[in-house]
Write a structure and sequence with these properties.
alpha+beta, six-stranded mixed barrel, 50% helix, elongated
C-alpha cells in the first residue's frame, strides 16, 4: 500500500512540474511572440502588398498588424562587440505583447524627440556592459551592403553603419536575452536598405480563445495565399512544446514501470496469503463456494490495497503541489526576476490518468494470486 501511495505521489508531482514548465515556456515566448505570425515560405523577406494588408486588417477580430524587419548584424558599444539579431518594429508593436512588463532597466521607448532608441535583451546588455544612463555613447550596428560589389581594398566600406541609443533592458527568455535587440522599423530600413520589403507581419486579434484565433488564422491564410506560413503562438514554438510532450510521455512511461515494480509487493502479499489460507479456501469450496467467488475475494483485497494507496497518493500529491504553488518552497536554483520557485500546475486529467494507470497495474498484480487461489482443490487441503 505504501509503495503504491509513494508511486502515485511521484507521478502526480512530476506531471505537475511538467505542466508548470510548459506554462512558463508558453508565457515567456508569448511575451514576445505574436498571436499570429506571417512569414514567407521561401527567402527571408517579401514585398509588402498594401491591398492584402488592408484586407487582413479589415477582418473581423483583427486588432492590429505590426510590420517586422528582422536580421543579423554586428553590434558595437565602446570597445566591445558581438553578433546580435535586431528586430525592427512599427510603433504599434506594444499592442502585440506587453513587453513593458518585462523591463528591467531604463525606459520603455523606441523613439523620443526624433531620436532612435533600442531595447536590449538582458544578456546583450551584460555582455557589452551597456550603461543605459550614458547618453553620450551610442550603440553602432554594422550590416553588410547588399547591392554593392565587395571592396577588397577597404573592407569597412562593405558595411552600413548606423548608431542608436540604448533605451531599456528587457528580461524575457534565454534566447531573446542573449542575442536580441528591438529597434524602430525606420532605423531597420535605413540600416538594411529595404524599401517595401518586410521579414514578417505580426497580427493581434481581439480574442483570447484559441479556437477563435485559429479561425482568424485560417481567414488570413486564405487571403495571403500558399506562399506564406501563418503560425499561431503554439506553432511558433512547436519544437519546444513537442519536446516537452515527448519528455513528459517518456517520464510517465518510466514512472509506470517503477509503479509496476512497486506493485510486486501486492503480488507477493496476496500470493503468500493464498498459500497461508489454503485450508480456509478449501473449506469455502466444500461449503459450495465457486472458484469465481474465491478469486473475487483476492481481487477485492488487491483492489482495496491499491485503492487506498491510490487515494492517499492522489491526496498527498495534490497537497504537495498546492503547497508549492502557494509558498514556493522548492526554488529554481537560478536568479530570475520573474520566477524564483519551481513551477507546478495542477491538471485534473493527470489525476485521472495516474489513477487509471496505477489501478490497472495493481489489478494486474492481484490477478495471478487470485487465479491461483481459485484453483485450490478442497480434497487436497481438508484433513480427513
Amino acid at each position: 500500500m505504501v509503495g503504491v501511495a509513494v508511486g502515485t505521489i511521484a507521478m502526480v508531482v512530476i506531471l505537475s512540474v511538467f505542466n508548470g514548465l510548459e506554462r512558463i515556456t508558453r508565457e515567456l515566448h508569448t511575451s514576445h511572440n505574436p498571436e499570429l505570425l506571417v512569414v514567407p515560405k521561401q527567402g527571408k523577406t517579401f514585398v509588402l502588398d498594401a491591398e492584402i494588408q488592408k484586407k487582413i486588417i479589415d477582418l473581423e477580430g483583427v486588432r492590429a498588424i505590426t510590420e517586422i524587419i528582422e536580421d543579423n548584424a554586428l553590434l558595437r558599444y565602446g570597445d566591445a562587440q558581438m553578433a546580435i539579431k535586431f528586430k525592427g518594429v512599427t510603433e504599434n508593436f506594444n499592442q502585440q505583447y506587453a513587453l513593458d512588463t518585462r523591463l528591467l532597466d531604463g525606459k520603455f521607448r523606441l523613439k523620443e524627440d526624433a531620436y532612435w532608441y533600442a531595447l536590449l535583451g538582458y544578456g546583450v546588455s551584460m555582455q557589452l556592459s551597456v550603461n543605459i544612463r550614458d547618453e553620450l555613447t551610442p550603440l553602432t550596428l554594422w550590416y553588410p551592403e547588399r547591392d554593392k560589389k565587395v571592396n577588397i581594398s577597404d573592407p569597412l566600406k562593405n558595411f552600413r553603419r548606423l548608431s542608436i541609443m540604448a533605451g531599456g533592458v528587457l528580461g524575457i527568455e534565454e534566447q531573446f536575452n542573449q542575442n536580441m535587440i528591438i529597434v524602430p522599423i525606420d532605423f531597420a530600413q535605413e540600416l538594411t536598405g529595404y524599401k517595401s520589403e518586410r521579414s514578417a507581419l505580426e497580427i493581434k486579434t481581439n480574442y483570447d480563445s484559441r479556437k477563435k484565433i485559429r479561425a482568424v488564422q485560417r481567414e488570413v491564410q486564405a487571403i495571403i495565399g500558399e506562399d506564406f506560413w501563418v503560425k499561431n503562438a503554439d506553432e511558433q514554438q512547436e519544437l519546444i512544446l513537442k519536446a516537452f510532450k515527448i519528455e513528459r510521455l517518456f517520464t510517465f512511461i518510466a514512472l509506470s514501470f517503477v509503479m509496476a515494480v512497486a506493485s510486486f509487493n501486492i503480488f507477493f502479499s496476496l500470493a503468500m496469503l493464498a498459500i497461508e489460507k489454503r485450508q480456509d479456501i478449501a473449506l469455502l469450496e466444500s461449503l459450495g463456494a465457486r472458484p469465481q467467488f474465491i478469486r473475487n475475494i483476492f481481487l477485492y483485497e488487491g483492489a482495496i490495497i491499491g485503492g487506498v494507496g491510490i487515494i492517499s497518493g492522489l491526496v498527498i500529491g495534490f497537497l504537495i503541489v498546492v503547497i508549492q504553488m502557494e509558498f514556493g518552497i522548492v526554488g529554481l536554483g537560478i536568479d530570475s526576476p520573474f520566477h524564483n520557485a519551481y513551477p507546478v500546475e495542477l491538471n485534473p486529467l493527470d489525476f485521472i490518468y495516474v489513477a487509471l494507470t496505477v489501478l490497472l497495474i495493481t489489478a494486474g498484480a492481484a490477478y495471478i494470486p487470485a487465479r491461483n487461489a481459485a484453483r485450490t482443490k478442497a480434497s487436497a487441503h481438508i484433513s480427513k
